Amino acid sequence: MIETNLSISHKPTELPVVAGVDLNLVNIKLVVIVIVIGFFLPDMLITPTWQSDLSDIQNQVKTLNVENQKLTKEKSKYRYIEDQIKELQSQETRLKERLNVVRSIIKTRRTPLNILLYLAKNIPEDLWITKLEIKQDKFILDGKSLSFSSVGKFVGSLRNSIFFNKDLKMSSTKSEEDQKTGVRLETFGITASIARFE
Fold this sequence. Notes:
By secondary structure, the protein is α+β, with helices and mostly antiparallel strands. The chain has helices at residues 28-77, 79-108, 113-122, 148-159, and strands at residues 17-18, 21-22, 127-135, 138-145, 169-177, 184-193. The strands form 2 sheets. The chain has a 4-stranded antiparallel β-sheet. A two-stranded antiparallel ribbon has the order 1-2. The protein contains 4 helices and 6 strands.
């Protein structure tokens, strides 16, 4: 009798060739064993060295944390010094502001001392001042003299000074006789703009 096999025959599955390697010829069990050994074996060999390195690093971190705590405590001890430094800096800025205000006041303040000294040094002996007025930048002077030439010398010295602008002029001149002594007097007035006070 003839036997027929009616079951479907299974052909082995053919694996493709990858990068010149025929996967049908590769032993899959061996590959799985190599993967398992490659995955777990390095951990068994390398982990102890990692453990020692990790413990060294952890010890270093602990010592650094202890030092950080000490420095933080020390910093808190000196916090009052920081507060004093900030207060001194704020006082310094306030003093600088006040100093700038004083400097601006001194700069705008005009003392006629140098002008008065110049007048005293250059006034002739036979001339005297009856009125002297300085209002801001205006200079007004009235006086009397025994001779008109002394008035001319005095006006010339004022024109040559650094204190007055070139607009210095005689505002009034008059000759009169003193009723008590009978001496002839030259009465004069001078006006000018002040160029500088120093």
